[in-house]
Amino acid sequence: MTTRDDLRAGKALQGLRFPADRARALDYARVRAADRKTLKALEALPDRTFATRDDLVDAVPGQPEGTEHPGGTAR
């Protein structure tokens, strides 16, 4: 996960009550009109219950920004 993914996911999940599972987090982010990149990052979460927002954000799989360019140079 990049720092930007971390910020996006954290912002989209502000106010979500925990513990929360993957499906509930995705639904919450959709209701809050999260952008496409945020939803894509959250869709990659493992199917489990997360104790806290930090726990969930830490579980978002890491990918460099600009995956079409090696090293994540595209921003």
From TrEMBL:
Residues 53-75 are annotated as: Disordered. The lineage of its organism: Bacteria, Bacillati, Actinomycetota, Actinomycetes, Mycobacteriales. This is DUF2795 domain-containing protein. It comes from the Bacteria.
